[in-house]
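Record Clr5 domain-containing protein, 551 aa.
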Amino acid sequence: MEIVAQQLAFGQDIPFSGTTSWTSDSDEMVYQFKERPGHHPKVNAPNPDQWRGIKDIFTQLYLTENRKLKDVKSILSRKHGFNASEKMYKRRITEWKIRKNYKAQEKEVLAKRVQAYVNSGRDIQSLSFNGRPVKLDRVKRHCPDKQLWDQLMQSPEATSGTDATTVKEDTPSTTTPTKLTPATKSSSSPMHSDLQMAEATTLNSVSFDINISPPTELHTVESTLFHTRESIRWQFTSFKPLKVEELRIRFPGDIPDEVSTGRLDQASAFWLLLHHGFSLLHSRRSSEGFKNLDDCCKMIQPLLKSAPLHLLSCLLLNFAIAWKDMNDLEQKLLEFVSEMACKVLGPYHPLSKATKMIVSDSTREHVVEPMMNMIVQGYRSARKLSSSSVFALRVDQIDLLRKRKRFDQAVNLCQQLIDDSKSMRPKRYRTALAAFGRLRLEQNDEFAVEGIAHRILEHANSDPVMSNSGGTTTWACEQLAVSATNRGDYNSAEMYLRRAVGLSHQEYLHRGPSTELLLEKLEVCLRQQGRKVKIDKICTEMGLPVGRLIG
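=>
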């Protein structure tokens, strides 16, 4: 047996006994030895962090690529320097709840799902159970249409998922898609066939590492919505999100302090970084803008593990309309998200396909609104109306419609949100009012914006908690300052701007105006009064950190 001497990634050397020699084709030292009968070298158990680090690779090899445990063990040892005994692996397989065998109920569901896809004219492409290609021979007897299954068993897919499949150790397994003609012609629509398969999505054990192709005659837009619907079903049936504590361990340095301390959720942090990154680039502050976008890219993989549908909604909102003069950057950012989704979830996952399709601006133009509506409705059917996720998504939906000039629909949704928010926490009501205010501002209704801003401040003053609602009060102060400036009332404008600066500086990242922008407006306001005061002096007077704000 020849084994290349190497240093393990976890700081352990492989003990060998025997003679050494140099290979003729390389500079690697090779040990030659013979194992003593009955002798098994002791394997030191990897620690929990090492197991967590290898989990995704193990799952890809063992389930997605359907390799045998001994082959996976060999690959991880040789390529990744990860040494563990089969007994250790089996213990982890039990702990991670990974299994390849089918239960009787699962066989029935999978048989119905396969038959429904074939009857509706769909392609069967690597249909899998828990990330492993479906073994058609094991679910055959649960299908009443024997003629159909005789045809399936003659296709390459019939044996692609069996244990006898031989897979080269160094290359991922591949399956060639085969178009199957239905045994009997069906007049049912693809939508009807999805209803027939609804019971399959109720099994929490069934994952969506599935290459599902919609009927070839459907338009690209319908295909995108098809995969979006499948993504929603997956999140509410099979997906198990990682908590913040585990995210910090698996992605050190990629989780913002606001998220780690619980002041902001992961999706909101991503949304705001992307929003402010674009705003900074648009205002020609490129270094700060690209820093925000770089931080966004670091957060994509943790978001796919914690809140994938929220990630998709963030993309829909921030890319609802084309980025002015930044088409190339917009394209690259969306391509990066798509590639990361394929890497984390697999190329056949419906969310991977949905993100890949919205990279095209022509497709995105037609699907952003129905996709956002599907996500909101999915959450409303699975969560309480007062849920923070449902509320945040409803606000995002209104903002998306506002950006796309769908004012009538946005006003109706906003009025519903305001009415519902009255029975929720006080700051929810102010957030709903701010969404309505942004809508009226987009319509150039300055009188209505001023009235809404006054309502927000009055409500904030009467709130005993005095919470800032994530920048809502700051936004209201800014709008009242603008109205006062337009009337020539610079004293009132100064008062509102000073309050806005103080609130903005005290709060963490929010969707309201930045402290730097408010300081610039305050400086202009003071100049209108004949007071030439620079920003650094204003910061000193207000006790703000000068270097961080204007550096």
